[in-house]
């Protein structure tokens, strides 16, 4: 099992065994501000280059797969049902609500992004029901590629985000990724 080193702002370190990729967590000495205006409390980073990733993976409970044109209605319903919870935290929500036709175009753009290797968006399903999305965002305004996710409000608090993100990160590293950034806002307690 790889081990993980955790460092606090006081310089204290501890090691513990984990069945995951080694990460170095660090807390900045001064609060950071995401370009989208959200105050950040911590980040975890390693370096990522443009990678080609598979279009489908499975975990114990979930399927992570590239979006298809047939997903627009389920995506529209999930975002509409989750809008109040997603709006404060998810940058794409500034463009919501979209029409179904705009959602179809948005899905097509996500498919093209995946094929280009620049950004990767995956529908997350449980028993063939859409429960959210995970993504690797290269070329974001913060320059360092970022891992993101959102979970449908009716499917939160079940560990789906953690399970899907562990698989996404493992596959990105397996494909040659050498950096990734995770940002979390202090007010987003669910994350």
| % residues in beta strands | 25-35%
H/E element order = EEEEEEEHHEEEHE
Which shape, going by the Cα principal axes?
A: globular
Low-confidence stretches: 1-49
For the biggest sheet, the summary is: 6 strands, mixed
Q: What gap, in angstroms, lies between the N and C termini?
A: 25 Å
Number of helices: 3
The structural class is alpha+beta
**Number of E strands:** 11
- What value does the average pLDDT take? 75
Helical percent range? 10-25%
Query: What value does the Rg take, in angstroms?
Result: 17 Å
Account of the protein in words:
This protein is α+β, with helices and mostly antiparallel strands and 191 residues long. Helices cover 25% and strands 32% of the residues. It contains three helices and eleven strands. Strands 1, 2, 3, 4, 5 and 11 form a six-stranded mixed sheet that branches. The chain has a five-stranded antiparallel sheet with strand order 6-7-8-9-10, sandwiched between helices. The radius of gyration is 17 Å and the shape is globular. The N terminus is likely disordered.
Q: How would the blueprint of this fold be written?
A:
Layout: E1 3-7, E2 13-17, E3 24-26, E4 32-33, E5 39-47, E6 56-58, E7 63-66, H1 72-86, H2 100-116, E8 119-126, E9 129-137, E10 146-151, H3 160-174, E11 179-185
Parallel strand pairs: 1-3
Antiparallel strand pairs: 1-2, 3-5, 4-5, 5-11, 6-7, 7-8, 8-9, 9-10
């Amino acid at each position: 099992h790889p081990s993980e080193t955790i460092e606090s702002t006081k310089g204290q370190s501890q090691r513990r065994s984990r069945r995951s990729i080694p990460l170095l967590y660090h807390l900045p000495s001064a609060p950071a501000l995401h370009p989208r205006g959200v105050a950040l409390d911590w980040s975890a980073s390693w370096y990522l280059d443009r990678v080609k990733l598979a279009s489908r993976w499975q975990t114990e409970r979930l399927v992570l797969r590239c979006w298809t044109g047939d997903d627009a209605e389920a995506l529209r319903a999930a975002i509409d049902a989750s809008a109040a919870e997603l709006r404060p935290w998810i940058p794409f929500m500034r463009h919501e609500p979209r029409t179904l036709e705009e959602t179809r175009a948005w899905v097509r753009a996500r498919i093209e992004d995946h094929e280009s290797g620049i950004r990767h968006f995956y529908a997350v399903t449980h028993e063939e029901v859409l429960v959210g999305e995970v993504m690797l965002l290269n070329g974001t305004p913060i320059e360092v590629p970022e891992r993101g996710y959102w979970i449908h409000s009716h499917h939160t608090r079940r560990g789906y985000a953690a399970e899907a993100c562990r698989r996404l990160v493992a596959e990105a590293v397996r494909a040659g990724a050498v950096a990734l950034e995770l940002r979390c806002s202090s007010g987003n307690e669910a994350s």
